Amino acid sequence: MGGSNSSYFHKALRGRRSRNAILSIKDTEDNIVTDPALTVVAAVKYCNCIAEMANISPWVGDPMEMQVVEVRNCRVWLIAKTVDQYIHRILAGEDANSHENNSKLYDASLDAGKKLYTRGAFAESQISNLDVYLLKKVGLFPDILERKVRQHFEKGDQVSALVTGEFYTKKEHFPGFGRPFVFNAEEVAEITEWNDEQIEYIKEKVSEEGKQEDLKKGKEPAQVALDEAAFLLDLASVEGTWSEFQERIAECYKAAGLHDIGKFILYKD
Q1: Phi, psi at residue 71, to the nearest 5°?
Q2: Backbone angles phi, psi at 98, to 5 degrees
Q3: Most-buried pick from 12, 19, 85, 150 (CB within 10 A)?
Q4: What predicted TM-score, i.e. pTM, was given to this entire model?
Q5: pLDDT by residue (tens digit) across 99-156?
Q6: What angle do CA 172, 176, 178 make, to 5 degrees?
Q7: What distance in Å separates the CA atoms of residue 24 and residue 35, rounded to the nearest whole number?
Q8: Do residues 165 and 149 lie in contact, with contact meaning Cβ atoms separated by under 8 Å?
């Protein structure tokens, strides 16, 4: 049913999303909470109360060390690495963007929020940009890093954009999530321009003479094969000729001992 991409399939999917969505929640004081940010706070407080009554820790490992995610377009998007970071962020955001001393979220968070953030801390930091404050004082967030990359490009600062994009993909930052790599492939690589000199250099590296030169320099054959695969992928992305390089790329991975990847490259639905 899903393979046919039918209207029935999409209607069924929308219905499932509606059933799975949490629109409101009752907090520990029997109040109905509908604000998306407050529902997270209420849920955490409720679980902590249950854990305290049972004299157990609410989560396995450190308290509040749960990732906050959102299901969007059939994908799981990371919102925050921990519940603490998520609550800290929304409290700092409320404080920074409040023009009428609004503290609804801060008051609702009670002790849990006060342990994470103190009203006025953003202003006292003298950091004018909220994104910069969050990255420095709270933690790393995927959407903020992506926004920083785009802002660097808009200012014409390609070096800073590329450095930030590379930092985003470091595996220790968001382990288990492929979004950083997708973002770099879609945004960073698309904006980066290749000149004729770079393309000629790549073509030289994947030639037989180029490979022999690397071997003479002492490179392991497996590494030379992996380098060739990487260069061929670059050429395919620039020239738009994936079908011409597909088999050759697969052979490179097989030559490097990565037979499963070679088979994956050749797979056709």
Answers
A1: -90, 120
A2: -85, 120
A3: 85
A4: 0.54
A5: 666 778 887 777 777 888 988 899 999 998 999 999 999 999 999 999 999 998 888 8
A6: 100
A7: 8
A8: yes
